[in-house]
């Protein structure tokens, strides 16, 4: 089976009701990114950060995957499909995709603020109990925090992701501005000659542009067009 690797970003979830990061003056879901997605922001006001992700988590539990997510799942019938996503939502999971790598963490989960990658303290919050209370602690006694990779923190999943991209027969990039590293650098791991498709209604700068087919549409319409090209 041919291997298709998808690299998805915030645009993938727009049609499910979520906002992009860079679409509205550096605000994400109406907050400055520095306040709610950086290590400094967390240190300055952990309660504000937890409350922000509490609200987003509630919204996520009520959200549904869009046609784009579902079409990616469908391709598993004929292809070996892997999704590498920068998104912290679980909409690829809800669509049923089997192999998913989350580069920037998972909103459904919370973790230790002393060591976010200590797997003993990573917990998935159920839909009916999905809020972190102010002052709530992780198993190691540190403040409980969202399992999200903030700016300024390491991206532990980048190595397995790079290996998958290096084995891909095709790379499909959907809804990402490709400005955040190390995720944006994944494109460089494709083997020479590997076809690259970009599904995005806007022009996205990428160094791979020479061998890239740009389908200038939103995620769902773009996926339909991509499938026709296969
Ligand atoms: P951006 O907001 O930077 O880019 C979103 C992209 O989606 C843009 O290129 C839009 O043109 C495109 N887009 C908009 N509507 C779309 C639609 N309906 N279908 C398809 N594409 C659409 O978001 P990301 O590139 O994902 O990190 O941002 C990367 C990272 O920066 C995020 O993962 C996040 C943020 O800081 C963390 O949370 C750590």
TrEMBL record:
PANTHER family: NAD-DEPENDENT PROTEIN DEACYLASE, NAD-DEPENDENT PROTEIN DEACYLASE SIRTUIN-5, MITOCHONDRIAL-RELATED. Pfam families: SIR2. This is NAD-dependent deacetylase. GO terms for molecular function: histone deacetylase activity, NAD-dependent; NAD+ binding. It comes from Prevotella jejuni. PROSITE patterns: SIRTUIN.
């Amino acid at each position: 089976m041919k291997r298709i690797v998808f690299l998805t970003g915030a645009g993938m979830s727009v049609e499910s009701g979520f906002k992009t990061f860079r679409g509205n003056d550096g605000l994400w879901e109406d907050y400055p990114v520095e306040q709610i997605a950086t290590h400094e922001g967390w240190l300055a006001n952990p309660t504000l950060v937890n409350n922000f992700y509490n609200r987003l988590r509630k919204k996520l539990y009520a959200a549904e995957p869009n046609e784009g997510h579902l079409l990616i799942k469908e391709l598993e019938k004929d292809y070996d499909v892997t999704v590498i996503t920068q998104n912290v939502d679980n909409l690829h999971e809800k669509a049923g995709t089997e192999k998913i790598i989350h580069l920037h963490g998972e909103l459904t989960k919370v973790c230790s603020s002393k060591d976010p990658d200590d797997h003993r303290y990573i917990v998935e919050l159920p839909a009916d109990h999905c809020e972190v209370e102010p002052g709530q602690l992780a198993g190691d006694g540190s403040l409980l925090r969202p399992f999200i990779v903030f700016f300024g923190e390491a991206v532990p999943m980048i190595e397995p992701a790079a290996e998958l991209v290096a084995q891909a027969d095709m790379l499909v990039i959907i809804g990402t501005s490709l400005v955040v590293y190390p995720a944006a650098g994944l494109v460089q791991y494709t083997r020479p000659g590997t076809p690259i498709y970009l599904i995005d209604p806007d022009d996205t700068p990428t160094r791979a542009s020479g061998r890239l087919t740009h389908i200038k549409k939103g995620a769902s319409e773009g996926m339909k067009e991509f499938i026709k090209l296969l």
